[in-house]
Specification:
Layout: H1 3-11, H2 13-26, H3 33-43, E1 64-73, E2 77-78, E3 84-92, E4 95-102, H4 104-109, E5 117-126, E6 129-131, E7 137-142, E8 146-148, H5 152-155, E9 161-173, E10 180-185, E11 197-202, E12 217-225, E13 230-232, E14 237-241, E15 247-256, E16 265-269, E17 274-277, H6 279-285, H7 297-308, E18 312-317, E19 325-330
Parallel strand pairs: 4-6, 8-9, 11-13
Antiparallel strand pairs: 1-3, 1-5, 2-3, 3-4, 5-6, 5-7, 9-10, 9-12, 10-11, 12-13, 12-14, 15-16, 15-18, 16-17, 18-19
Helix pairs in contact: 1-2, 1-3, 2-3
């Protein structure tokens, strides 16, 4: 960014020169003209929103605000110094770039999902990459939609997508070891009856496929469908969820909150099952971040109901399914 030009555009050439001169003198002549301009621009709040498309970012930009799609999520890298780094590939209408998360943020970024929409505030550009620093904030503003296996054909018409299913059969490593091949279906936890089934070619880290077993639940993110099979390429990600007796997965059919909202409410599943959530758990489930005690949780749940119906839900119980709920979340 040309900070001198920015300052001159905002203040006029004469005033900009005077303010830069004052800053240079204040630092005993040790500041360059560009550095002085950047310092003045920062003090005046002119860098508060240095917004540009990912494809238009330039070295040294600060306070960068972005709204991007997550195209790929890299592995967590640990260095001998103790530092940790995770790099995401991101994109918007202007192009693609890379986004670095450091330290604890690098761990948290692993909980994001490919194709999520991510908002970053006050990032900075260094060595060609956007970085999340200690002054930065970030949040997932829109979660990637996850379809069931029976919807793969339709979802595949729109490009990359994500699917959740259960491993129904295994073929193993293809000739040459280029891909690990298996099939997934919509079979239920209880009946075990298979519904729609589709083969999967795992090209991204195919050796991970060797950890799969028939019956495992998997989430395949950022995949493509060629009309015959799902292709999990280099930018895709496989998340394995081993079956456990205290985990329930299903589609949300409704949320019911009684007049006494202080006691929470119930989530109603597509198969008719109903699970009770306390007030705090229900607030987290609805993704309501700042809600006061006097706010009408019943009304808020009714407002959220339409956008959540049909979404995949993961419910974790403290013991067995049907007992006390430990957590519930939209996937």
């Amino acid at each position: 960014m040309d900070y001198v030009a920015l300052l001159e555009a905002k203040l006029g050439e004469d005033e900009a020169k005077e303010k830069m001169r004052e800053r240079i003198e204040g630092f005993h002549g040790l500041l360059t003209r560009e550095a002085a301009a950047k310092l003045v621009a920062s003090e005046l709040g002119l860098l508060e929103s240095a917004v540009a498309g990912v494809g238009k970012l330039s070295e040294g930009m600060a306070s960068v605000d972005l709204r991007v799609r997550v195209e790929a999520i890299g592995e967590l890298r640990k260095f001998p110094s103790g530092a940790m780094l995770r790099t995401l590939i991101i994109s918007d209408a202007s192009g693609e770039g890379q986004l670095n998360f450091w330290g604890e943020d690098a761990k948290k970024a692993g909980g994001m999902h490919v194709l999520d929409t991510l908002e970053v505030r006050k990032g900075y550009v260094k060595m060609g990459r956007v970085n999340v620093g200690y002054k930065s904030t970030y949040s997932v503003s829109e979660k990637a939609e996850v379809v069931c296996v029976s919807e793969v054909g339709k979802a595949g018409d729109g490009g990359r997508f994500s699917v959740m299913g259960r491993v129904s059969s295994m073929r193993g490593m293809s000739e040459g070891g280029r891909a690990f091949v298996f099939s997934i279906s919509d079979s239920s936890d209880e009946s075990g009856e298979s519904g729609a089934e589709v083969p999967v070619s795992l090209l991204a880290s195919p050796r991970k496929g060797e950890h799969l077993k028939v019956g495992d639940s998997v989430l395949l993110e950022g995949i493509e469908y060629n009309g015959a099979e799902v292709i999990a390429g280099e930018r895709s990600r496989l998340l394995l969820r081993k079956n456990r007796e205290n985990i329930y997965r299903g589609e949300l059919a409704g949320i019911e909150v009684g007049e006494d909202a202080g006691s929470g409410g119930e989530i109603v599943m597509g198969d008719g099952k109903r699970f009770s959530l306390g007030r705090d758990a229900l607030i987290r489930f609805l993704n309501l971040k700042e809600i006061r005690e006097d706010m009408d949780l019943r009304m808020l749940s009714k407002m959220k109901n339409p956008e959540l119906l049909g979404k995949r839900v993961l419910v974790v119980f403290k013991d067995a399914i049907g007992g006390q709920v430990e957590s519930a979340q939209i996937r």
